[in-house]
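Many introductory courses stop at the sequence. We go one step further.
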Amino acid sequence: MVIIPIIIVLSLAMYLFYKVQILRLGEDPLKQVYTNSKARMALGLFMLSISINVYLVYQTRLALYITILFIALGGAQLVYGYKTTRFYGKQLKERSA
């Protein structure tokens, strides 16, 4: 399973990229919130993939509980980030048009 470590590294890199991007945006709070919501999506994907990887490596009952917890938290981050990205993306389009 080479795909899961690749997803882990890419999602962590995207999370860090978006967090640094927030610092570079300056004074525009709408763009900062939009970029932060994209960072939340990357964090959610990171948490999902790390939890799947933990369970595939250890396959114990404790790893299963940790996996279930991280899937719930990562899924919540992913869904919340997706919803806020859609909302603030529309706000940015309306503002620029």
